[in-house]
Amino acid sequence: MTETPTIDVHAHVLLPQVEEAVAGRSGLAAARELDARRNGPDALAVSAAMIRERIPRLTDVTARLAAMDAAGVDVQLVSPSPSHYHYWAEPDLARTVWRLANAGTAAHCAQAPGRLYGLGLVPLQHPDLAAEALDDALGHGLRGVEISSHAPGRELSDPAYEPFWARAEETEAIVFLHPFGCTLDERLDRWYLSNTVGQPTENAVALSHLIFSGVLDRHPGLKIIAAHGGGYLPTHIGRSDHAWRARSDARGCAHPPGTYLRRLHFDSLVHDPHVLRELVRVAGADRVLLGSDFPFDMGTEDPLGALRAAGLPAPDHDAVRGGNAAALLRLDRGEQP
């Protein structure tokens, strides 16, 4: 390619071997029951049909590449389906999950070198194992890992994660923050509010924990990508800045919260050109990356069309289209998986 490739940083792979490993294990039934309560029966029925229809694009590299070509996407950063987190798993099973996920994602991407790059998983429910799992992912040639917005009983501000953040910073690993499930539970169990309201809420809460707790002060080199444009936080960051200035109990970070948006990265998947322009304004054009949530129905099959609709200046458009991701993935250094 003579010009910067078009890079989609938000795409998923489904790994049947992970689900086979957890089948019948203690804790799975309770996790599924919680998921059912949070989403409601209508959402579960629609989602099941949607996933069945999209299995080829989630598992078959040929189908994935054909869809990428149709959308004008040259490169995808592929992460496991968030349904593979399984943060209920005890340590031994958690190790099996991340090893299968890391190896499976690497094998999937290896079928299309130069076009597919991957992310692995870490067990947020076991902070003492997170750095080990990150190293396992990097050892498979993956570019980093995907995490949710929290684990049961733990926020991302928990000091127990310090070794993980330190290792991620040291290795320049990408950490893709992608929520799965919302703790508002049954309040969102109709009309797919569990996703439409729940996901951006979880993004905003998780990023606020990272900012206000000082994680980004202690680890300024972290390479975090927030899915779904960072949720509600970027467009409502003024309220956080006001709290930081007005209240002593909101001074956990060294600088106004809004300044940390320019230390983070965000995908472009906000479903509104006005919101995308605002995200670029507050975070900077060098901090926004093209994202589609391939191939799920809450994503977009035309991420380039969504980007064009924002009407960004040409240099900003090209940066979001692929320039920023190429630098983050170190493609500008000619590095390969």
List keywords for this structure.
337 residues, alpha/beta, ACMSD, 14 helices, TIM Barrel
The major beta sheet can be summarized as: 6 strands, parallel
Strand line-up of the largest beta sheet: 4-5-8-9-10-11
Helix content: 40-55%
Principal-axes geometry comes out as globular
**N- and C-termini, Cα separation:** 17 Å
Top CATH class: Alpha Beta
What is the count of structural domains? Answer: 1
State the oligomer: single chain
The ordered string of helix (H) and strand (E) elements is: EHHHHEHEEHEEEHEHHHEHEHEHH
Mean pLDDT: 96
Give me the secondary-structure category.
alpha/beta
Strand content: 5-15%
Question: Per CATH, which architecture?
Answer: Alpha-Beta Barrel
The CATH superfamily appears as Metal-dependent hydrolases
- How many runs of DSSP E, i.e. beta strands? 11
Weakly predicted, low-confidence segments? none
Protein name: Amidohydrolase family protein
Organism: Actinoallomurus spadix
Keywords: Lyase
Domain Amidohydrolase-related: 7-331
Task: Provide structural commentary.
This protein is an alpha/beta fold and 337 residues long. It has a single domain, classed as TIM Barrel (Alpha-Beta Barrel), CATH 3.20.20.140. The chain is 47% helix and 12% strand. The protein is built from 14 helices and eleven strands. The protein has helices at residues 16-22, 28-39, 41-59, 61-71, 91-110, 127-139, 162-171, 193-196, 198-212, 215-218, 237-246, 273-283, 303-309, 314-328; strands at 7-13, 75-80, 116-118, 120-121, 144-147, 150-151, 154-155, 174-177, 223-226, 265-267, 288-289. The protein starts with 6 loop residues before the first strand and ends in a 9-residue tail after the last helix. Keywords: Lyase. This is Amidohydrolase family protein. Residues 7-331 form the Amidohydrolase-related domain. InterPro entries: ACMSD, Amidohydro-rel, Metal_Hydrolase.
